[in-house]
Amino acid sequence: MNEVDPLFEVNKRIRSAKFVSRFESIFKCPICNLPMHVFELKSLLCSNNHTFDFARQGYINLTTRQIQSKYSKKLFEARRKLIIEDGFFKPMNRAITDFICQHAPREMEPMSIIDMGCGEGSHLSNICDAMSSYHKKTVTGVGVDISKDGISLASRDYDNKIWIVADLVNTPFRDQQFDVILNILSPSNYAEFNRLLKTDGIVIKVIPQAGYLQELRKTLFDTPEKQVYSNVDTVELFSANYQVIDCLRSSYTVTLNRSSVHSLLMMTPLSWDATENQIRTFLKEESTEVTVDLDVLVGKRRN
Ligand SMILES: C[S@@+](CC[C@H](N)C(=O)[O-])C[C@H]1O[C@@H](n2cnc3c(N)ncnc32)[C@H](O)[C@@H]1O
Ligand SMILES: [Zn+2]
Question: Which residues form the Methyltransferase domain (predicted)?
Fold first, then answer.
């Protein structure tokens, strides 16, 4: 859909406001911390009248200051193409869904999942949809990202989720609202995660392993230190904050055609400083095999 129908947009905003109103009790005002409610299917409002409007795509921007992000609309579109068309992260999404089924508390009750640094929203959407269609769970999905471009794409294309622009360091939600916190290839803030997590909730963090995009690293970086990635410090920090109850190395290769390699170059911060020449070298081949190598860590609170 290139031309956006204005009526569709209004409806989208209203649909979204109606959906959010069912879950308004999870919010707290980012300015004064008071509870919030949906007002006239237009905004989220606290008792001090601090007001945040629904955007026409259906998301809410709950930041209180302008934030610059290096992640652009083009990057998120490229990421979306790789995830949806090339199934680039499919095994990882499947592993997360299985982990949630195995480890999440209160099997029969509705479940709330928040994705911190959700980008354009495909992981959260895939995981929630798999949870409800294959595993018959009632799931509420909340996606948070600091980038308006990412959240805008997520909200435009994925209905029946709550999409919020916010800094994951300081989110506009009340304490202990979530059964599952996802954190996929994004920064973490464990103090904030612990504030949001229910006492028996789980945190699932995905981080790169040594082989992740190694073909790209070898072409783009000339020193061995940059060509080889180690996640030891990140794993240590996660283990210091949580009791690790499960982990899995999700490692595989994906064959990408030239157009998808182009998307790969667009979607990763690794190529932000690449030269034209390096990019051309990578785009020379008709198709390229690329390694995806990730650690999926599952933690729960330390007692
Ligand atoms: C590499 S992308 C991963 C996005 C998504 N999880 C995925 O795997 O497609 C990192 C994401 O973290 C987000 N991010 C970085 N700092 C953030 C912060 N302080 N609060 C919320 N999101 C943040 C970026 O905007 C970006 O969408
Ligand atoms: Zn307020």
Answer: 113-201
Q: How many CB atoms lie within 10 A of CB 164?
A: 26
All structural domains of the chain: 1-58 (no CATH), 60-301 (3.40.50.150)
Structure tokens at 129: 């949809």
89 is in an annotated binding site: yes
For residues 104 and 171, the answer to whether their CB atoms sit within 8 Å is no
Q: Is the CB of 164 under 6 A from ligand 1?
A: no
Lowest-pLDDT range of 87-96, 176-185, 273-282? 273-282
Atom of ligand 1 nearest to the CA of 89: 8
Position in ligand 1 atom list of the atom nearest CA 189:
19
Distance CA 271, CA 254 (A): 18
What's the mean pLDDT in 224-233? 80
